[in-house]
Amino acid sequence: MTDLLQLVVYGIVTGSILALGAIGVSLVFSILRFAHFAHGDLMTIGAYGGLIGVALAGVSPIVALPIAIALAVAVALAAEFILYRPLRSSHPIILLISSFGLALILRSAVQLVAGPSPMVYRSGIQMPMRFGDIIIRPDHFWIIGGTLVIILALHLFLSRSKFGKAMRAMSDNMDLARISGIPAYKMILLTWVIAASLAAVAGVFLGMDTRLHPVMGWRLLLPVFAAAILGGIGRPYGAIAGGFIIGISMEVSTMFIDPGYKHAVAFALLVLMLIVRPTGIFKGKSL
Amino acid sequence: MELSGLIGYAVFFLSTVSIYAILALGLNVQWGMTGQINIGIAGFFAVGAYTAAILTSAPNAAHVGGFELPFLVGIVAAVITSSIVALIIGAITVNLRSDYLAIATIGIAEIIRFTFQNEEWLSHGVRGIADIPRPFYEGKESGLVFLAVALVSVAIAYFLVERARVAPWGRVLRAIRDNEIATEAAGKDVRRFRLQAFVFGSALMGFAGALYAHFIGFISPDAFEPVFATFIVWAMLIAGGSGNNKGALLGAIVVWLVWSGTETLVARLPADMATQASAARVLLVGVLLEIVLLTRPQGILPEERPKLIARRKK
């Protein structure tokens, strides 16, 4: 029982990271209409952006979040201007393939600059906190708490602000949104800013939870897609639920099967979902 | 460089290109002709490679295999197993479109790689399978013999794919790619054709995998990472010209020239950067792919529509 609870705690941590990534993937998928394969590597960029702050200023990764966000947003907007905008008029799949190429460019760029070996934000052992038999690291509190704050902020943005409502409208029905006068290109740029910011935070959290490595984000890409699809594409709240479901399933599965298959659990759930109910739990759209 | 060294390099280069050319032809059936995005090339490549390796290598207590069967048996078995795997995966994913198929295939390919990584009894895990024999002849000239085998293999694959392209079958595939609903309305069983194309393409990928295992003589899960076994093949087909089989061959040569050219380039980097050399190469090929997509999305050789084989009745 203790083991199970402990794994659920780890699952919530993983789920927080996945949820932040999945919201971005889901928004990009529904507004820009393609599966953004470079999203995991955008998380990596964010994680290493945070490392710049940690290394230069000696601050904690949480304080370095703005640097991480700025870097990831800059990369996403550069990709939009150089790649995605010119390619938007060609076949939609060309966008997907170009994002696959960008994923490799970003990953190898990180490896060139930072080297292939894993890094950490902070060396040494953190004093874990004990709650009965359950152990929680302070970093885990930051990750879960930070995610909750961001989800709340996102909720307020989507439900209260003009841009948030416009974004939901575009995600629900692009044509209807366009004829009702929503500035489409502004919304596309805003989508990138939000998606990249969330990816950056997810990357920093992932770096705090484990270590930094050039393939850290790529490894998480499929679980992130799984979460987005599970929740229903275009449903930000679905992406959050999907993130926690996938995260908890991945961690709890290690009780029953070899931990080497942890990621395979996410893929299997993804494939299962695609077959049984491609629109996801929250009835997102199918492309 | 001495002449023998140069010849040796040419033999190695052409052998590698041949293996990639078969992968690109397989992808062309799926993507170029049918419009199916398979980002799980590595999975079928791995299934073919492991099948051939297990059947033809010498006995090893650490994993199954050691049957020491002849090369041709291994090749045929590799094609059959990858076809069966493709049939199962295809039957599951046949209703998925575009992005969803892409995500599903890459997920499945990763599951396959994890399986080979974790199932020690089957594949010796991360340590891989070694001592896979060269086809027909082991010895000093085995490289040349292998090249001959590889070139014949490319010729067979090219013949099959080109024949399929000009046949009515290929026409249905292109019709599905261009307008699925109209094809369905014309009375074609779209699911069936999609599945056939998926299995055909994947069988070629398994074939290439078997050749790869015999060429390198050693396989481990690392070789089936998406970067090496999937991304480069996509770059090759897109650069060469998707839909065009000659383009697939040309793309394999061009991209591999760039890839191995960068190897020479990064060899000049200081020694402490040597580990980053492969990153620099992936970066360069990635940039190249983006430039091709932006400037010439139809590739070097654009698709040609085949002439109708059957004459219209007068």
Largest sheet: spatial strand order of chain A: 1-2
Cα distance, first to last residue of chain B?
64 Å
Q: Specify the structural class of chain B.
A: mainly alpha
Could you name the ranges of chain B where pLDDT drops below 50 across 5 or more consecutive residues?
none
The gross shape of chain A turns out to be globular
Output the structural class of chain A: mainly alpha
For this structure, the quaternary state is heterodimer
Q: Give the topology string of chain B: H per helix, E per strand.
A: HHHHHHHHHHHH
Q: Provide the residue-averaged pLDDT of chain B.
A: 89
**Rg of chain B to the nearest angstrom?**
20 Å
Order of helices and strands of chain A: HHHHEEHHHHHHH
Number of β-strand runs of chain B: 0
Q: Work out the strand percent of chain A.
A: under 5%
Furnish the topology, listing elements before pairings.
The complex is a heterodimer of chains A (287) and B (314).
Chain A: H1 2-31, H2 39-57, H3 65-87, H4 92-114, E1 129-131, E2 134-136, H5 138-160, H6 162-172, H7 174-179, H8 184-209, H9 216-231, H10 236-253, H11 262-276
Antiparallel strand pairs in A: 1-2
Helix pairs in contact in A: 1-5, 1-8, 1-9, 1-10, 2-3, 2-4, 2-8, 2-9, 3-4, 3-8, 5-6, 5-8, 9-10, 9-11, 10-11
Chain B: H1 3-33, H2 41-56, H3 71-93, H4 98-118, H5 120-123, H6 142-166, H7 168-178, H8 180-185, H9 190-216, H10 226-240, H11 245-266, H12 277-295
GO molecular function, one term (chain B): branched-chain amino acid transmembrane transporter activity
Protein name (chain B): Branched-chain amino acid transport system permease protein
Membrane topology (chain B): Multi-pass membrane protein
